[in-house]
């Protein structure tokens, strides 16, 4: 999960306010209270880390689509998607908050 207290370290702007709102929503609906090992704080956004921080995806499995809602694990190519079976959430959190804290993220260019 995205620790809500970490948002106090971030610049106060529309982006961080909205991400904080989403983080609160995730926490409110989270299963973490019941299943503490589950961490779905990045939801579908976790896939972005495979590009910018590939070390955050610790174990992946190739999968091939078998139907509209079906997939099966495969060991050969071609494959349709990678399923992250284990992620390093600490790496993800550090990268996430470092990016949002970086002033260059909010630099506006002149037109």
What does this structure look like?
It is a single chain. This protein has helices at 14-29, 46-52, 89-101; strands spanning 57-65, 71-73, 81-87. By secondary structure, it is α+β, with helices and mostly antiparallel strands. It has one domain (4-103). Strands 2-1-3 form a three-stranded antiparallel sheet, with no helix packed on it. A hairpin with a 5-residue loop joins strand 1 and strand 2 (71-73).
Features:
globular, alpha+beta, 111 residues, three-stranded antiparallel beta sheet, 17% strand
Helix and strand arrangement:
Elements (H helix, E strand, L loop, with lengths): L13 H16 L16 H7 L4 E9 L5 E3 L7 E7 L1 H13 L10
Antiparallel strand pairs: 1-2, 1-3
Intertermini distance: 38 Å
Structural class: alpha+beta
Q: What is the residue-averaged pLDDT? A: 85
Integer tally of domains: 1
- Strand line-up across the major sheet: 2-1-3
Low-confidence segments? none
Backbone shape: globular
Proportion of residues in extended strands: 15-25%
Helix % is 25-40%
Oligomer: single chain
Rg computed from alpha carbons, rounded to a whole number of angstroms: 17 Å
The biggest sheet, with number of strands, parallel, antiparallel or mixed sense and barrel status, is: 3 strands, antiparallel
Number of helices: 3
Order of helices and strands: HHEEEH
């Amino acid at each position: 999960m995205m620790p809500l207290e970490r948002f106090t370290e971030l610049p106060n702007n529309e982006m961080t306010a909205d991400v904080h709102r989403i983080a609160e929503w995730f926490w409110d609906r989270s299963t973490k209270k019941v299943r503490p090992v589950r961490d779905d704080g990045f939801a579908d956004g976790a896939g972005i880390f495979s590009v910018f921080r590939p070390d955050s995806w610790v174990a992946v499995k190739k999968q091939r689509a078998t139907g509209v809602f079906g997939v099966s694990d495969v060991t050969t190519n071609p494959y349709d998607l990678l399923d992250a079976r284990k992620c390093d959430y600490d790496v993800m959190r550090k990268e996430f908050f470092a990016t949002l804290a970086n002033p260059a993220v909010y630099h506006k260019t002149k037109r």
